[in-house]
Inverse folding.
């Protein structure tokens, strides 16, 4: 499976990832509005207080929210907060925590990941069951958490029922449930549900809530949904170097996105642009592509189409199809425009 | 020595720290200007390229700069990059790395700190010499780096000669030299020298370059001055969860501050406001205060003055003087105004 | 795949593992002989000096040997000594380091393991090649070492050529090569070669040399074969809590085993007993079993045979065969006797 | 303060430390007696069961005992078992955990130590109180355990009342209490009390129980006195690489020492030899020496006496007296003989 490398500095990055987009104007406005006078640092500010209120409204009165800088930070803070020193986390082999965080979970969290093969990036309840055999076996890292990505690294989406099934099995065996929600907005928009519907309502204990890929400058949050399964989140955020001094500006970004319907509008736009992109690509001769679930499109393209695209665009060869053709990954964001799609299609079609 | 606690949410935070200030308008403008179109993530963007050029101009053609999110991140990335698994870092007992980073150096960097008592927060060459007795002793953590804070946590400043003396002793014994430059701007402004004059020019190998306390939203950088003593900084930044996806916005902040004379203007203002604050405080009956070296003022005040101030302001009792009176810490920033000082003095004087 | 659990305290443990055996009389004699007068601790003793000489004779004049307490300790010290902070180690998914060390590599060594599926516990050169795609990719843990187990956890043996092929690919890509030689003696005896023939002579850089399973009380060693690829082994052993104060008694055990032909005699005996056990089991109706390569026998047995054996013996159900029958793991040691085999066969046959 | 270095391989090591002694004959006999037949590994053996019974008799019915390989292992396992990820341990600046464990607590346990200056190696209740100011302060490592060494690295002994006072203050503030009992036998013998009298009876929660320095080959134990303050000791021992496969031989050593009065006889002998050594040294002209509390003697000697001793013996210069004379550290063990003392005195006296 292909790895994202940023070598082609002269290539158009527009479809390389959803993090190539800039800052949503509404979010930047919110940062500016928060920029007046002095404010207590480290979260004792008005915006952070308001964000905490939002989190309780969305995820339940017991919820706690801890803004952090980036997604890896959110994941590793959250997993440390649900795992004792001897704990391990079950994840998909395709998970970002497993492949793309420089081994931060292992190095900084001193935890073992227990990756499970999966064709579509999704775990199933059986994945948990099959790891439970070592419970109580002192020689093995103890599976005490499961982490699922919503939407997944492969552009798939768990239904609320699927999350609930995983959570039920996990809880029955004493495991905590974490969602890597780096793209939770895209999933919720695709499912036409709230952020809580696919997390708190399904038994999720702790959540990495992503904002950067959906229009923020740099802001994510750890949301503790179930404080009874979580310990020391505030201390862990601090020593994990994810506590911002001027936290008001992180909270302002998160509020602008989640305290309004902006998250939904942005995610819906990104998903729709991906649907449009897939539809247009399907009309290019030789291209096969499934309708995307969220904002990632994985077209199987003839080699010459791949070459045309990759001569102009940074576009990752994600896989090779059964018939030997390259499968690209193209991503849309809140900022993707129809004109950008037009240009990509023209390049792909060689017109 | 007093600890900063943020309990008084109804108190005026204006002098509690230099991180209570917001974002410098010039820096926020720069973020806005960087917010156009798509850009490659993780540093492969135009602003980051330009920042790298600036770093080479300032710190030498071999210099490398790695933007990070916060000061703890910068320090722990930098120290990991100069220490092998068995290394330890000599620091002042008053150092931020020792007291205020939640043990991130120990927990995430797996390093031991070797704190040295110091009355003014400054190390001397003898502090290094006295730790060298364990070199080669397999039972002891090996002192392989020294970290000094410029300006220090106690508001003092190393002269270039003092840094150079430390670096000479350190290098002669095989240790790398790190500067925690969270407030390097204030020190350089006070010394009337460039950022490099008190770091690269004095033999410093690696540097945490602070911007947040001098007007940024959230941006610091690790500057590798001497790549021969540093290994793996890019990998270490990544797994230390300090690599921003939309790095252009961190680089834009750093460029706005350091690529112009803004850092100098802001730091000079903060230092001058502190000098003014000290001068005005000295006129309050019973108050004793030394002229500040940079932007921190440590007045010894009668108990009733402390009570008046602390009934209205978040102001940390930093210490108790020899005569039993409270010593407060008051800090000025790039945003401190004369009116704010007037108000504080009126409260202090009980007028 | 079955996990070894020690719940049946009333069951006969004789075939449960090779670590159920006691201490070889020759080794215990050597401990007694070393027990006279005072000796410098931590390796500055006569036995340790003699052991170092042996290591140089066996593995080359540049070799260094570091006695440790147990196999996990040897592996985690060795891997830390060849990996920088950002390094990862490629291993078989069946490897002891991956499954049976309580995640010590991740927790204490802060390293990621990159497990590769394998049917027989053996890595192939392609396993390395396929992990190299992330070299230089800052988001991924960097594969900088490969660890192979000789003989493997599945009772298979690498030929010297197989090790050499792996080492060649690894070295060409800049990776260090580690052998987990917890049962190296059994492999060397089976291959009819020296300990170095299948390690140092094949390009192995560092080695965990096992003695406990071959008759020692508690003694293993890290052997640095190629000091140019290894750093800080002495400091790493110390902080990894594997430096014995009365090291003379560890060195005495290792010398008694490896400084004579005792390792070969013991390992040959264990291997031969396993061959005999397999031959005898094959005569029990319904049992299928391959001739063992070393001292582990994996018979596929009818369910009633498994029940008879497991009613009397601690015998791990290792797997289920394609035809649905249990596959047991039975191990022989230097101390296994023909009478013990007779008794086991009688139980298995229900006679 | 002097550091123990083992460079003089041609010097007599007899008084360099109590770990220069060999194995007590009774303990070696016990190892031999345990060496019959097969036994389940990892603690499911008869000797380990018997050891657990002894621990309950000595330390209370709730006690648990976990044999480990060495003292650093015992300390770091114990401290991990009482500290969450964000915890720190208060210790004497002279503590073995702080100076002589290669930073294993920080590197492997990810904990910060909070060292307190102390003239005699002993903590006082005020040492705890003074560290409590940061409780709840998210920027500081949280003091959640205190560790005291009994007898101390400076040869002093806590009275049971002193331990109790520390434990009371610690418990009132929510801290767990650990004793590094590497030389607990010497302290208990000197105090004429049981092992529990100065630990469990004083509120100690967890204990490193030393045997190696008092005659074992290599055996220590973590004793959990109060399971309510301890979590995961078995998993932590495993991933800390301190779980022996042939544990019966560690348990046999511990039983031989502690299950009889051997610990008391050996420790009393060592203490008496130290008293004799001090008395004899006092008769050497110019030598000043306090009566030792346990088995360590710290004579202040004229320079020429030091030179005579150190030309023949490995004897550490521990300190320099107020009058500028060297202070040596000389240690006696269970194996020290009167003849050895005669020889040392003859050398010291130059006769």
């Amino acid at each position: 499976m292909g790895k994202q490398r940023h070598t082609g500095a002269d290539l158009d990055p527009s479809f390389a990832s959803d993090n190539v987009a800039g800052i949503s104007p509404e979010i930047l406005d919110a940062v500016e509005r928060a920029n007046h006078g002095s404010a207590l640092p480290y979260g004792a500010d008005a915006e952070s207080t308001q964000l905490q209120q939002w989190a309780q409204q969305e995820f339940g009165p017991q919820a706690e929210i801890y803004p952090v800088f980036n997604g890896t930070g959110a994941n590793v803070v959250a997993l440390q907060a649900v795992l004792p020193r001897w704990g391990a986390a079950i994840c998909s082999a395709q998970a970002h925590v497993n492949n793309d965080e420089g081994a931060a979970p292992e190095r900084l969290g001193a935890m073992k990941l227990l990756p499970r093969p999966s064709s579509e990036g999704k775990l199933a309840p059986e994945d948990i069951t099959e790891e439970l055999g070592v419970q109580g076996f002192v020689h093995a890292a103890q599976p005490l958490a499961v982490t699922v990505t919503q939407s997944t690294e492969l552009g798939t989406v768990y239904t609320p029922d699927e999350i609930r099934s995983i959570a039920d099995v996990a809880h029955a065996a004493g495991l905590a449930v974490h969602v890597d929600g780096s793209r939770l907005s895209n999933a919720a928009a695709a499912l036409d549900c709230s952020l809580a519907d696919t997390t708190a309502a399904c038994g999720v204990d702790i959540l990495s809530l992503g904002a950067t890929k959906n229009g923020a400058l740099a802001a994510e949050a750890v949301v503790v949904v179930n404080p009874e399964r979580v310990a020391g989140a505030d201390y862990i955020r601090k020593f994990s170097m994810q506590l911002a001094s001027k936290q008001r500006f992180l909270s302002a970004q998160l509020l602008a996105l989640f305290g309004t319907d902006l998250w939904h509008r942005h995610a819906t736009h990104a998903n729709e642009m991906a649907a449009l992109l897939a539809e247009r690509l399907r009309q290019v001769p030789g291209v096969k592509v499934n309708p995307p679930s969220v904002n990632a499109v994985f077209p199987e393209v003839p080699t010459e189409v791949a070459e045309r695209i990759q001569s102009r665009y940074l576009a990752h060869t994600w896989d090779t199809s059964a018939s030997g053709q390259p499968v690209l990954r193209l991503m849309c964001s809140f900022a993707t425009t129809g004109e950008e799609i037009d240009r990509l299609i023209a390049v792909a079609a060689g017109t």
